[in-house]
Amino acid sequence: MNKVYSSFNEAVADIPDSATLMIDGFAGPGGTSQNLIRALRDQGASDLTIISNTAGLASVSGFGTLPGQKPIDIGILVDNGQVGKVIASFPVSPSPSRPTSFEKAYHRGEVELELVPQGTLAERIRAGGAGIPAFFTPTGIGTFVTEGKETRSYDGKEYVLETALKADYALIRGYMADTMGNLSFRGTSMNFNGVMVTAAAISIVEVDKIVDVGEIDSYRIDTPALYVNRIVEV
Description:
Number of helices: 6
Number of strands: 13
Number of domains: 1
Largest sheet: 7 strands, parallel
Oligomer: single chain
CATH architecture: 3-Layer(aba) Sandwich
CATH topology: Glutaconate Coenzyme A-transferase
Strand content: 25-35%
Structural class: alpha/beta
């Protein structure tokens, strides 16, 4: 099975309308699959549900972008009218004076938001990849994020039931892959990409370089090829 694709456009060509996607986004755009996101914008699939830590960044100088430059992230899909819902932990800009594209669209009533505590988000994704349908956590007890959810008490402490998250596709950013799809991450790509790649039916990965099988030392393989469907070299 050939997992190496010749272009980003080819790799995302079959993503349909109303698909659910996982896309990393944490501590700047460096760990985000910018080329795949740009290709998806050009492809035009609409009514997408995006699962991510953030809902895109504002154009904030010094936060992974040049002065006045807009990051290539989920925000360009929002601007293009392709996003119907976002499931995220930090969907707003760190600066109220520079709102993100998602914030603006949300206030206009154009997109939905499901807010999830960051640790819970990571565990819901991990559970989806591990085949665990749900789990109990104390995070969020006494706040609006538990409304309508089952709660139970264990050893005198209250917990809320959270369900696993899965996706139709994951757009992943890695550092290196071999031709079988074994992955190595580094820098900010070591955040959500590693769990997201396990929780999607089809994982599409952009990497700095693709090498032959055996060229990545086994102890440097962060994700085995089992979870990878498509690879594109930047």
